[in-house]
Specification:
Flagellar M-ring protein, GMP Synthetase, Chain A, domain 3, cilium, three-stranded mixed β-sheet, alpha+beta
Length: 329
Amino acid sequence: MPTGLDSLKEDSSLGTSQFMENARYRHGLEGELVRTIISLNAISNARVHLAIPRQTLFVRQQGEDPSASVMIELKPGEDLKPDQVEAIINLVVGSVTGMKSEFVSVIDQYGRLLSADVASAATGKVNAKYLEYQKNVEKQIIQRAADMLTPIVGPSNFRVQVAADMDFSQVEETQEILDSNPVVRNEHSIQNNTVDKIALGIPGSLSNQPPVTGEVPTNDSQNTNARSELNRQYAVGSSIRRTQYQQGQIDKLSVSVLLNETAAPNGTAWTPEERAQISTMITDAVGISAARGDSLSLMSFNFTPIEIEAPPAMLGGKTRRFSSRCATS
């Protein structure tokens, strides 16, 4: 059994450097991971190598991420499933601070990179999920059309097929809308009127005499100065809208409907008016949109009956024939 963090209990000398202390801790952590991994039924032995970058006080130099390599030795006749390999990766990621799953590599004694199968399996799960969702949408549309056609032509006199093109892109849109009517936020007005009297006459004692009693001063001897200032600050209103479009939207819908010719009301063929009414009914029922480019095809043919013979053992030695109908082009 490999040594784990128990080795840290050993007394270290006074002159042990920080590098040796970190190396002992990393070695003990690797041993603990090995103990946990070999406890799995399909694994007989394992080794773990951790690459933990040294922590520094400088933020710009902390750009390296820790990584790990795991080598496992499988028991004879045993193999690991992608879910089990993913569990080992999550075990290592949860044991080291700041480690990401894409920086963990898992190989076996044959040199096979098992962690690569986990990434491809995750992609396959996502694709299978999208495909299953698309099939469910098509089934719902077929059921809508069948619910409308069954009361008219019967359950065995029509066939409906749907092909839906889905968009699973994840789109997020941010819009900033400005208001077209600005609002006055601040207004500052200044008005200043100044009237000064102009000194007239010849400088000297005669010009400094007081005005004669009863004499009205004229505007010619006054200087008027008027100043007006208006300052307005407008505020434009805005609103921010964030829209996240749902995944799995229908880009295009193609619906094909096949009717049994003998199921027509007259027993021979469907008239153009009847076909137009059925087309309108199916279009409204399944939600066909012309703006989206959807299409609907309505065809009618004679369904060929197929005779099926039941085994004699089921009928007490007697042979009985059953007939059903299928479409022929």
